[in-house]
């Protein structure tokens, strides 16, 4: 077995050790500097999963996960700004020709950094951002509740829903312009440094060639639901960083638990959805009657297992960051201390990418709800509750 680390993992470790971790407490209080973003661009890490024929590394998922863990454990704010970039790259790789040819190379090579503005799509059938054709292009109106990396990103992947129920994704320059206005940066309990704003869209016009993806909403939602079921690698990265603040005897059993949960989470992430997966609630499948019950049961089980592992990972993260604070004593309360920063980063990760479904599952795990009650709550969340647009970005 070849145990040699991937070159991008080596670069991530070097970047973390030489720049991100030593500066993390200052960045946490003052904001991610542009010099950090330039260092990330030079490292090649923005192209970790980008296609090689456009200048990316085309690395396998295991490498991308390890890189994400390293960056998140070193500086959560810098990790969060750069992690937005990978969705636009993957969208372009399978998207519309004009946008792909113009932007995929620069994004893959790290010449440009992209942000994302699409979490609000999960509120559907509400449409916080509406899109309609105008003058040979597309007009965007509405509010983007969360946009991270303002002032650091070069471009953004902006999404809305058309009158015909399509999800439409298009690229815009990440700056104020006619039809696009940003709020002041938000003061948040965690990751204020990532420069998160809200965006007001009032007739923002984008040309047809800016469109990266146009697809029926249900088709997009099916893939998005898969992503929100899985555990973010950042959870393991921050947990590892917190455990590094403990003595060996205290950390050892937690390291063992982390390794087991991580292994299972990544095994599940590599499995394909079951037969009949559409991203729609299993209750809708059961309504068809016939032999749909077995497929619906498989969907329930597939989603439920991933949400359970995600909740277990959150519990380990809470334990690790709490232990780091306890071990640090009063010193841990200083804003210059690592333990309090990791604890706040852990709180942020509890709601990152949160949906109604994942929130219900997490609350069940926290409350110790019996299995029957848990399943009923799960079905309630899937069948009727609108997704929470408060779940930040990716």
UniProtKB/TrEMBL annotation:
Query: InterPro entries recorded for this chain?
Result: Acyl-CoA_Oxase/DH_mid-dom_sf (IPR046373), AcylCoA_DH/ox_N (IPR013786), AcylCoA_DH/ox_N_sf (IPR037069), AcylCoA_DH/oxidase_NM_dom_sf (IPR009100)
Q: Where is the Acyl-CoA dehydrogenase/oxidase N-terminal domain?
A: 11-111
What domain of life is recorded for the organism? Answer: Bacteria
> What single Pfam family name could you report for this chain, choosing any that match?
Acyl-CoA_dh_N
- Signal peptide positions on this chain: none
Protein name per UniProt = Acyl-CoA/acyl-ACP dehydrogenase
Traced from the root, the source organism's taxonomic lineage reads:
Bacteria, Bacillati, Actinomycetota, Actinomycetes, Kitasatosporales
